[in-house]
């Protein structure tokens, strides 16, 4: 993949309510009849992982890294949704493809289909002329407020470990210095 930019029409601003969404998903992998909605995650931390396309190269490494650490996310009260502009049918085929064949078999959180591209647009990660999303990672708190966002170029994967650290830092409610790790003291104001 090559460098690309999204058109800045985003509504997703840190400290503000996260843009609402209601997307078809793989929550029910066989029937594909269960949507994911922001309201479903009220009371939990939520990680939205936007990625460009199913059946590509960097995407499965990211999604499986987050899946492999899913219990750690659950342990700190967080959930995950992967989001791309592919269809739920493509998502299902990818989830049923073995990892050694470029798939994400065994993925434990749902993939959502942003078929209208409105959610990627609202979060400011849509590459309009290609109809795909940049690698955007958004952390939404239990009250529905966007607390963190980072957007990567198409070629660079994200870190599950760093995402866990950021959620835990946010959960302290304190001032966390650079390189803060869970269990360390926060700064005094």
Write the topology of this structure:
Layout: E1 22-25, E2 36-37, E3 45-50, H1 58-68, H2 70-75, E4 78-84, H3 88-95, E5 111-113, H4 118-122, E6 126-127, E7 132-133, E8 135-140, E9 146-152, H5 160-172
Description:
This protein has 189 residues and is of the alpha+beta class. It has a single domain, classed as 3-Layer(aba) Sandwich (Glutaredoxin), CATH 3.40.30.10. It is built from 5 helices and 9 strands, in the order E-E-E-H-H-E-H-E-H-E-E-E-E-H. It is globular and about 50 Å long. It starts with 21 loop residues before the first strand and ends in a 17-residue tail after the last helix. The relative contact order is 0.22.
What's a concise summary of this model?
With 189 residues, the chain is of the alpha+beta class. It has helices at residues 58-68, 70-75, 88-95, 118-122, 160-172, and strands at residues 22-25, 36-37, 45-50, 78-84, 111-113, 126-127, 132-133, 135-140, 146-152.
């Amino acid at each position: 993949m090559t460098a690309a930019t999204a058109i800045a029409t985003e509504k997703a601003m840190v400290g503000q309510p996260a843009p609402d969404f209601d997307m078809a998903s793989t929550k029910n992998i066989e029937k594909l009849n269960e949507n994911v909605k922001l309201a479903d995650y009220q009371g939990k931390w939520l990680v939205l992982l936007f990625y460009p396309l199913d059946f590509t190269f960097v995407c499965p490494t990211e999604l499986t890294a987050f899946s492999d650490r899913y219990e750690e996310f659950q342990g700190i009260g967080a959930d995950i949704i992967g989001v791309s502009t592919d269809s739920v049918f493509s998502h299902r085929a990818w989830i049923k493809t073995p990892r050694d064949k470029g798939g994400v078999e065994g993925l434990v959180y749902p993939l959502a289909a942003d078929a209208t591209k409105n959610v990627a647009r609202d979060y400011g990660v849509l590459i309009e002329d290609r109809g795909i999303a940049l690698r955007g990672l958004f952390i939404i708190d239990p009250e529905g407020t966007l607390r963190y966002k980072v957007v990567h170029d198409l070629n660079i994967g994200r870190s599950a470990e760093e995402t866990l650290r950021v959620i835990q830092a946010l959960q302290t409610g304190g001032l966390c210095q650079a390189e803060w790790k869970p269990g360390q003291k926060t700064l005094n104001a």
